[in-house]
Design goal:
about 140 residues, Arc Repressor Mutant, subunit A, about 65% helix
C-alpha cells in the first residue's frame, strides 16, 4: 500500500464511503444522500447553498441529489419569507427515519474503525484532520 499523504487520504475516504453504502444498501440510498441526510439532521431547514458548503458538494451536483431525495419522499423544499431565490430544505418523516439510520451507521462504523486507536491518538487525528480541512478551505477561498 502506498503510504503517501494524498493516497492515504483518498483511500480512507473511498473505503469509508464504501463501508457506509454497504451498511445502508437495503434502505435505497444512493451516493451523496447519506451525507445530505446527516447534514439535515443537524441543520434541518437549511438553504441549498448552505447544504452544498456543509457537505462539500458542488451546487449542481447537490441539485440532482435533492431532486432524487424529493422524488423518494425524503425531503421537501419550501420558500420562506417570500424569497423565491432560496428554497429551504426539510426532512420528511421518512427522511428523519433514514437520517437516524445514517447517523447510527456512521457512529457504529466510527467506533469499529477507531477501536484499536487510543483516545489520545483519536484526538490528535481529529485535530490534524481539522487543520487539513481548514487549510484546504482557506486555499479555496484565496483562489
Amino acid at each position: 500500500m502506498d503510504t503517501s499523504f494524498h493516497y492515504l487520504l483518498m483511500a480512507s475516504q473511498a473505503l469509508f464511503q464504501r463501508k457506509v453504502m454497504a451498511h445502508l444498501a437495503d434502505c435505497g440510498l444512493t451516493a451523496g444522500q447519506p451525507k445530505v441526510l446527516d447534514y439535515l439532521g443537524l441543520h434541518n431547514g437549511s438553504v441549498q447553498k448552505a447544504i452544498a458548503a456543509g457537505c462539500q458538494i458542488e451546487p449542481a451536483t447537490l441539485t440532482g441529489i435533492l431532486n432524487r431525495m424529493e422524488e423518494k419522499g425524503l425531503i421537501y423544499r419550501q420558500m420562506e419569507n417570500g424569497d423565491r431565490r432560496s428554497l429551504h430544505v426539510y426532512l420528511t418523516e421518512e427522511g428523519k427515519e433514514k437520517q437516524k439510520l445514517v447517523r447510527e451507521t456512521l457512529e457504529g462504523l466510527t467506533r469499529e474503525i477507531l477501536s484499536e486507536i487510543s483516545s489520545e491518538e483519536q484526538q490528535v487525528l481529529l485535530e490534524c484532520l481539522v487543520k487539513i480541512c481548514t487549510k484546504m478551505i482557506d486555499a479555496e477561498v484565496l483562489q
